Amino acid sequence: MMKYYNSKVISGTTVAAIRPKVEEELIKEGFGVLTEIDIQATIKNKLDKDYLPHLILGACNPSYADTVISIEPTISTMLPCNVTLRELANGDVEIAIIDPSVAMGTVGNVDLEIPAKEVQEKLINVLNKI
């Protein structure tokens, strides 16, 4: 099975502490955070189940969103790009990003390959700078 994400584990931090750095690096690569889902709070509220801190940030680069929607309008079902920050059982924090090349590759439109690869490179740059 092909890996559908890229990730990095960081010790000595918390989800709340690393989040500003993640957002800063996303901005440097042309992304903004459009959505946020707090998994810990949502699951506690809806199911009364405890989770460690876990956020999903919906990151969007408007130029690339425009490009891929122009090529394949229904690709909007796969936007924005998710970036997750979650505390692991050992206290480390994992930052994971979707691999747009894998996600968009399932569509079968070769015109999406180049922009998906470019977005993937930008998101990997974010991981590498955190």
How would the blueprint of this fold be written?
Layout: E1 5-10, H1 15-28, E2 32-38, H2 39-47, E3 54-60, H3 62-71, E4 81-87, E5 93-98, H4 100-105, H5 113-129
Antiparallel strand pairs: 1-5, 2-3, 3-4, 4-5
Polypeptide structure, described:
With 130 residues, the chain is an alpha+beta fold. The chain contains 5 helices and 5 strands; from the N terminus they run E-H-E-H-E-H-E-E-H-H. Helix 1 packs across helix 5. The longest helix is centred in the C-terminal third of the chain and has 17 residues. It is globular.
Which terms would index this structure?
5 helices, 130 residues, five-stranded antiparallel β-sheet, 5 strands, alpha+beta
Content of β-strand: 25-35%
**Roughly how many Å apart are the termini?**
27 Å
Provide the helix percentage: 40-55%
* Classification by helices and strands: alpha+beta
Main pleated-sheet profile:
5 strands, antiparallel
**DSSP strand tally:** 5
Radius of gyration: 15 Å
Shape label: globular
Give me the side-by-side strand order of the main sheet.
1-5-4-3-2
- Total helical segments: 5
The residue ranges in which pLDDT falls below 50 over 5 or more consecutive positions are: none
Average the pLDDT over all residues and give the rounded result.
Answer: 95
What is the N-to-C succession of helices and strands?
EHEHEHEEHH
